[in-house]
Amino acid sequence: MKLVFPNGEHGQVLLSAGVNRIGTTPTHAVVLTGSDIRPLHCEIHITDAGANLQVPQGGGAVSVNGRPVSDIMALRSGDQIDIGTVVATFTPLEPAHAVSPSDVVHDDDDLGATRVRMAVPRFVLRGVSGAVFGKVFPVAGPVVIGRAPECDITVNAEEISRRHALVKPVGDGLSVEDLESSNGTYINTRRVQHGFLAPGDELRLDAVRFLLIAPGMETSQQALRAAPAGAEPPIRAARRRWVPIVLTAAAVLLAAAFMLVPG
Fold first, then answer.
1. What distance in Å separates the CA atoms of residue 84 and residue 106, rounded to the nearest whole number?
2. How crowded is residue 197: how many other Cβ atoms within 10 Å of its Cβ?
3. Phi, psi of 185 (to 5 degrees)
């Protein structure tokens, strides 16, 4: 997806998976100038499920198709976004090759417009508590989580440090590094300085919790619900409960076999 600025305030911007920040801060994905533009004016989140526009605390005036956005709103191809007095249009990328029938989605209410499917990220952090509840964050590379606006995942919670933790894909999961946070970084119930987060595991930053999802994993893991704070994930807990039962059964069978051997 991309943003097009018909009045020329900015060149076309290709939006990447994850958080695309818009404001006057030079490091943002879209840097705008103007007396009505805030340092962090708004954010566009691109995920495998679609796109949404969010106005963080301290953000500026934003409307989509004339409707003011106070918190979060889903975006669709062709939407007009008013960022202060700057007008932008949310549009799909032109495909570089012919679109196959499986890539075309026709909606009854958009006059048959074609929407090109985005690549599904390998790993996704799903918020399951607090300020991140219900939000999803693709992890395609190193991602810093913290309270500061310049973080890749910004969590507006006082218990989160400005730069709390760093996660990045490694093999079949994510490596996790605590960035000298005040309240600690946990994988399931274990506090870590460095650790490994596997699909189905819970990442906890004080009271804020995420669940690691790997799209395409087995259905039983994909349907895994977050365990209550302080509890093991259900799959691991169930596995731990069954281990002694299986060992006991094996011992009984072995003893019975010895009894049947002729003396």
1. 32
2. 23
3. -120, 135
Buried b (16+ CB within 10 A) or exposed e, 212-232: bbbeeeeeeeeebebbeeeeb
- The single-letter code of the amino acid at 184 is G
Residue 246 to residue 170: CA distance in whole angstroms: 33
As a whole number of angstroms, the distance between CA 117 and CA 172 comes to 24
Report the C-alpha gap between 73 and 170 in whole angstroms.
Answer: 33
Q: Region 100-117: what's the mean pLDDT?
A: 50
> Are 207 and 163 within 8 A, CB to CB?
no
Tokens matching residue 189: 């119930």
CB 38 within 8 A of CB 60: yes
**Is 0.70 surpassed by the pTM of this model?**
no
pLDDT tens, residue by residue, 52-104 = 899 988 899 999 999 999 888 888 888 999 999 999 999 876 543 444 444 44
Tell me, what's the pLDDT at 89?
92
